[in-house]
Amino acid sequence: MRRETADSSEMINQVLYGEFFKVLEIRKKWSFIRLAHDNYEGWIDNKQYRQISAEDYDQCTNSITVLASDLIQMVTSADNNIICIPMGATVSNLPLMGDEYSGSSTAGKKTKSLFVDTALLYLKSPYLWGGRTPFGLDCSGFTQMVYKLNGHQLLRDASQQALQGEALSFIEESASGDLAFFDNAEGIITHVGIMMPENHIIHCHGEVRIDRIDHTGIYNVNSGLHTHSLRVIKRIL
After folding, report:
1. In the annotation, is 191 catalytic?
2. Which sequence spans correspond to the domains of the chain?
3. Contact of 233 with 164, CB cutoff 8 Å
4. Of these residues, 191, 200, 205, 228, which one is catalytic?
5. CATH second-level architecture of 112-235?
6. Which residues have a Cβ under 8 Å from the Cβ of 221 and sit 6 or more positions away?
């Protein structure tokens, strides 16, 4: 998904296999879309999606979402081609696509106690602006996918996610799975991570990594410096 109608335009998001959306505007080579699961909007190449009917869209909306839970798996298309899909791809719409999938999957709402285990599956994944897969993701794409794999919805950007949930007064009140948000010198939320036990945080900064967190912010154990200024910790669940 790109900000403007050009292959060279900034990638602001990724649309994963099986995710569905409304097309708000169609041009010769590009379509402006709104994703169903988080209402995020942007431009995608017309060659990279398949149109479905309004009835099929409603069916997707009303069905239980099932997600691929392996880091990478294969889908066999209706014409017997192999499609690689990443963890978090939606496989509940396979009948509509005419494809087949035999890998591991997950569905339904999980408890917050499982969030860190899911987050650790992404450990060492590289940072990629706009990314949402183990092959590259940004800080808010990481938190969104961890929550999504456990059956809970977050908005796409860190500044949007910061509007969700309940603010905690002190870091000592936080629990594993809570979200910590960080701002820049102008007070704009620019980073988010997932709280872990014993004042640690897992977040995507260069790569998905684990660092210490205190009242000041994130302390990078490699550089010996605070890299992010703590703004607020939010309890989503």
Report:
1. yes
2. 1-62, 64-106, 112-235
3. no
4. 191
5. Alpha-Beta Complex (3.90)
6. 211, 212
C-alpha angle with apex 88: 37 to 176, nearest 5 degrees?
90
How crowded is residue 215: how many other Cβ atoms within 10 Å of its Cβ?
9
Q: Which of 37, 60, 139, 200 is catalytic?
A: 139
Residue type, 98: G
Q: How confident is the model at residue 221 (pLDDT cuts 50, 70, 90)?
A: confident
Q: Which of the following is catalytic: 37, 200, 203, 228?
A: 203
Tokens 């796409």 map to which residue?
156
The structure's pTM equals: 0.96
pLDDT tens for 84-106 read 999 999 999 988 889 999 999 99
